[in-house]
Specification:
The chain is an alpha/beta fold. The chain is built from 11 helices and 12 strands. The strands form 2 sheets. Strands 2-1-3-12-11-4-5-10-8-9 form a 10-stranded mixed sheet, sandwiched between helices. The protein has a two-stranded antiparallel ribbon with strand order 6-7. Strand 11 and strand 12 form a beta hairpin. Helix 1 packs parallel to helix 11 and helix 9 runs antiparallel to helix 10. The radius of gyration is 20 Å and the shape is globular. The relative contact order is 0.17.
Amino acid sequence: MEKYSIAVIPGDGIGKEVTPEGVDVLEAAARLHGGFELAYAYFPWGCEYCLEHGRMMPSDGLDTLRDFDAIYFGAVGRPDLMPDSVSLRELLLKIRLGFDQYACVRPSLLLPGVLSPLEGKKPGDIDLVAVRENTEGEYVGAGGRAHPGMAFESAVETAVFTRPGTERVIRYAFELARSRPRKLLASVTKSNALNHSMAFWDQIFDEVSKDYPDVGTERVLVDAMAARMVLHPEGVDVFVASNLFGDILTDLSGAITGSMGLAPSANLNPERNFPSMFEPVHGSAPELCGKDVANPIAMCWSGAMMLEHLGQKAAGDIIVEAIKAVTADALALTPDLGGKAKTKEMTAAILAKMEALAK
């Protein structure tokens, strides 16, 4: 029997509320599918940990995580305790960059029974995957501030794009697009204004595209892609974008599919030199914390992506199909989906559907 070691970091805010639900669903998937086990180790890192220890994670935190098969992450951020710029960079970004998790994959699907804020959209009309470059670009932290408090105070944030870093994420996106029925890939940039970095990205995209003649391609400016996702999301299959543009557009794709509580993600090191990390897109949502109304679907769906990454796709599919069945039947929906269910009540509905599907 295969056994996988999972590092669990609930983090902050509703991360602490949805992570146990996700673990319950993972355990059910392992039991129903059979053939593998999941062993968990929990780490209390986050903003409260930082208040006590002076840092978001121990200095040897990456060494501690290095030998795990995967990382299951809840959320980070307590703006009432410290700036998000500190908490994000010192925990989540440190793991992404330290483990070279360069491909952030974020699927967005309009589920059965879920209403999109876009009028007239039916289940399946929105079915896209974003591939976000996850270790370079605008989030590398290159830059600084000078002359604080003076009239000529300045701040510089430098986006860094390397040929290997850009090429590998574009190639990953091509491979993903090739595996999907429509085989379409859009490259999202702003090369009409950013004539160094984004023109560089365009050049590499064109070069790599020659190796994938079976994949339809286009180059789209980020503002045009934002408009398309609102006006005609059916036309989007897979898109690849820089760290910043991918981050912004995937919040939009989550919103148009009905709720950020439905948006999963995978931070992948495709070569498997390091563990990959799986987390919901919704963040710590401090306004929901403690109300027992957080939607656990994104956490559970991220767990399904983790199982697929570990080679247990059939077990992950049980989770996704159960989620679709719960929303289709309007069972125990949380307030973000128009229901009144508590977090655990929605999880219970997912677990019940998993049992039914496995029979």
